[in-house]
Write a structure and sequence with these properties.
- The chain folds into two domains: about 1-65, Roll (SH3 type barrels), CATH 2.30.30; about 75-269, Fumarylacetoacetase-like, C-terminal domain (Fumarylacetoacetate hydrolase, domain 2), CATH 3.90.850.10.
- Helix content is about 10%, strand content about 40%.
- It is globular.
- By secondary structure, it is mostly beta strands.
- Strands 1, 2, 3, 4, 5, 6, 7, 8, 9, 12, 13, 15 and 18 form a 13-stranded mixed sheet that branches. It has a five-stranded mixed sheet with strand order 10-21-20-16-17, with no helix packed on it.
């Protein structure tokens, strides 16, 4: 079956859940796919335009998960949970505080996060809900915002905290290679208004909140950001992290879990 890759068309296949991913097969082919239970079906075409779900099937434990999309940019939002602003001893912003992470920071599920010991002595996790853009968005109105959203994923906004304090602006602290684990899938059939979000370090939960605690909602973020820059299909908005940030060391395992999406797991090297 071939359909257009729009949120309106996707429920034709499955109404309850629609999880898209990119993966590498055992024979090293890179594919787009659709995850159903423990099976991954290969997709032909572009999930943001037209695609076809094929009968080529793999077990989920036989593939390597890749980042589920290839963003041209990640637009991140600082201090977008009140409790995080308080723990950072900063006022709640009057408008969204934006910064960007480069596309080269993106890695996938089970990938390694490289600790930049040559520059930093403090590496922090920041678990967040990621919004995946489905079509070009410029000057979007809040009431139309979800028309431009393809789906949602998990993202870990890795931060060299000492460099963030030293530099004031965030580019270096947030922009190292491997500093944006994204995945494991894009869930398209999800209401993002009140999702549980957690970050787990070495099996211990360190962050725990709900997306209903966001200072600026997704429609407000879409309207604000799209008046600054055009968002393209596959671009990512990292919506902010709750309180409970903390440090990681080499050898640690960090997981970000978002209700209805799943868990992305990474290892610090």
């Amino acid at each position: 079956m071939e359909i257009k890759g729009s949120p309106e068309a996707i429920p034709i296949i499955k109404k309850q859940t629609m999880k898209f991913l990119r993966f590498k097969t055992k024979d090293a082919r890179v594919c787009s796919g659709f995850l159903e239970d423990n099976s991954v079906y290969e997709i032909e075409g572009d999930i943001f335009q037209k695609y076809k779900i094929t009968n080529n099937k793999h077990r989920s434990d036989e593939i390597r998960f890749l980042p589920p999309c290839s963003p041209t940019k990640i637009v991140a939002v600082g201090l977008n949970y009140r409790d995080h602003a308080l723990e950072m001893k900063k006022p709640i912003p009057e408008e969204p505080l934006l910064f960007m992470k480069p596309s080269t920071a993106v890695v996938g599920h089970e990938d390694k996060i490289i600790y930049p010991k040559h520059m930093s002595s403090r590496l922090d996790y920041e678990g967040e809900l990621a919004v995946i853009i489905g079509k070009a968005a410029k000057w979007v109105e809040e009431k139309e915002a979800f028309d431009y959203v393809f789906g949602y994923s998990c993202i870990n906004d890795i931060t060299a905290r000492d460099l963030q304090a030293k530099d004031v602006q965030y580019t270096r602290a947030k922009g190292f290679d491997t500093f944006a684990p994204l995945g494991p899938v894009i869930e398209t059939e999800l209401d993002p208004g009140d999702l549980e979000i957690s970050t787990i370090l070495n099996g211990e939960r360190r962050q725990h909140s709900r997306t209903s605690e966001l200072v600026f909602s997704i429609p407000k973020l879409m309207a604000f950001i799209s008046r600054v820059m055009t968002l393209l299909p596959g671009d990512v908005i990292a919506t902010g992290t709750p309180s409970g940030i903390g440090t990681m060391r080499q050898g640690d395992m960090v997981e970000v879990k978002v209700q209805g999406i799943g868990t992305i797991r990474n290892y610090i090297e």
